[in-house]
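Progress note, project year one: complex with S-adenosylmethionine.
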Amino acid sequence: MQKQLKNRQNRQEIIQKELEWHDKEAHRRLPLDHFLYAPPAFDGLSNFCLEFLQAKDGELVLDMGCGEGKHTIDLARNNLTVVSVDLSHTQLLLAKEMAAQLLPDAEILFVQANAEELPFAQNSFRIIFGKAIIHHLDEKLSIAEVKRLLKPQGRATFSEPLAHHPLIWLGRKLTPKLRTQDEHPLTIQEMSRFGQAFGTKEVDTFFLFAPLAYVVRALPRGEMAFQKLHRFLAKVDKQIFNAIGSAKRLAWYGVVNVTNTHGVP
Ligand SMILES: C[S@@+](CC[C@H](N)C(=O)[O-])C[C@H]1O[C@@H](n2cnc3c(N)ncnc32)[C@H](O)[C@@H]1O
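Model obtained:
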C-alpha cells in the first residue's frame, strides 16, 4: 500500500514536470517538428495507421497526446469526429488555432488531461489514434487506460519513435534540451510488449535510410528533391525490413496496431 502510494506520487511528479515542460518549452521544438514531420514525410505511416482503424464516416476517434494538432487535422479531414487530448494547455491552444484556421467547421473537442487517467467512461471509443505519446507514459498505466477506453473489438494504433536509429540517436544526444527528461524512445521489445498486452507481438517499422533525405530538405529549394528521395528511400527501407528482420530494431519509428479482445466472448 505504502509502495503504491509512493509510486503514484512519483508518477504525479513526473506528469507535473512533463506538463510544465510542454507548456513552457515545447515551442522551441516547433521548427524542428515542422522540418521532420511536415507532409508528405509521414503520410505513408499515417495512412498505414488509419487503414488499420477502419474508421467509419463521422465516427468518434480519440487523438491521444495530440500536441499542436497535426494528426487531429488529418483525422478530421477523414470525416471523423475527433476528441483531442493533451496534457499541455499551450499545445492544445496551438492545435485549436490550427483547426480554426484549416477546418473551421470540423467537429473537434479539445480536452486537457493526463492520458494515463482520462476523464472518459469505460468503453468510450471504438478507435484510438496516438502518435509519439506512449513513450511519454508509464507502460502499465497506458496499457490499462487504452484497455479501459476501448470498446470490445475496438482498435488502437500507436506510432512511436524507436531508440536505436543511429542518426536520430545522435540528433537526440546533441539536442537534449528539445525534449523532456522523462520521455524515452522505445525499444522494439517495449513496443512489442505493449502489443502483447492486447495479444499481438507485431511491430511494423518505418524509416531506416529515409532520414538521410532530410539533408536535402535542409538545402534552399530542396523540398521537391527531398520528397522524391524520401519516398524512394522509404520504399527501400520497407524492402529491407521485410528481408532482414533484425534491421527493424534500427528503424526510426515503430507502429503497434492493437485490437481489444477483452470482454469479447
Ligand atoms: C511528441 S508530442 C506528439 C504530438 C502529436 N501526437 C504529434 O505527433 O504531432 C507529445 C505530446 O504528448 C503530450 N503529453 C505528454 N505526456 C502526456 C500525458 N501524460 N498525457 C497527455 N498528453 C501528454 C505532450 O504535451 C505533447 O504535446
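The pocket of S-adenosylmethionine is lined by residues 15, 18, 22, 65-67, 70-71, 85-88, 91, 114-116, 131-133, 136-137 (CB under 6 Å).
Residues 58 and 80 are 5 Å apart (CA to CA).
No further modelling is planned for this target in the current period.
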